[in-house]
Each structure stands twice: as C-alpha cells, then as structure tokens.
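Regression test case RT-17, inverse folding.

Input:
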C-alpha cells in the first residue's frame, strides 16, 4: 500500500503561485503513475496533471502552461502552480497507482489518494 500526504496549499492572490507537495510512504513511487486532482463542493473530482513512471506528463487544458508536475527520485511529487486564477480554488488531492498508459484524468484509474490540501485564490 501507499500512503500520501499533501502540503503547500494556502490562500494566494490572483496571479500568485503555490508549490504543492505530496510525500509518499509504504512503497517506491517510481513504480507508479502519480497525479494531482482537484475538487470543489458539489462537483466531481477532476484531473489536473499526471506523470508516468518514465517521466512523461499530461495536463488538463485549463492548467497547461501554468502548472507543472514533477517528482524526485525518492518519494515526493510536486505541483508548481503559477498565474493562479479564482477558478483554481479547490481542494487538491495527490493520487498514485494508476497504470502507465491509463486515462490519467479518470479518477477511477487511481488506487491511492491523499487527504487533500486547500488552495484559495482571491
């Protein structure tokens, strides 16, 4: 099993930046796809970015050019968020366990989830 803990959320002004972090424990994350999702109340959880075990990345159209997903060689995955907009306000969740080549933005592909970190842009 993999346990995921997110951090780095907060309140930021429009145009600002945040760097979200996710620490994984219990297994080596290099074996898995990793991803970031976000959710606002009464809406479905939506895929923001994914990174496969070979380092290839994918992004939602709404964040392309503004957000960057990365991971280190150990057990952390990051989401650098720039040029934040009010529409980016949401609870952000780290995800792990989707197979390479999966439909990364489909939340049903993912096996492990963190508890989330709140991002508020105003």
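Golden output:
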């Amino acid at each position: 099993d993999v346990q995921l803990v997110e951090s780095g959320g907060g309140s930021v002004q429009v145009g600002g930046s945040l760097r979200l972090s996710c620490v994984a424990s219990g297994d080596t994350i290099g074996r898995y796809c990793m991803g970031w999702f976000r959710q606002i109340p009464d809406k479905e959880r939506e895929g923001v970015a994914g990174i496969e075990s070979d380092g290839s990345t994918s992004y939602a159209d709404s964040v392309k050019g503004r957000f960057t997903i990365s991971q280190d060689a150990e057990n952390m995955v990051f989401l650098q968020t720039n040029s934040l907009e009010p529409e980016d306000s949401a609870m952000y969740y780290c995800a792990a366990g989707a197979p390479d080549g999966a439909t990364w933005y489909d939340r049903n592909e993912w096996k492990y989830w963190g508890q989330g970190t709140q991002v508020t842009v105003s």
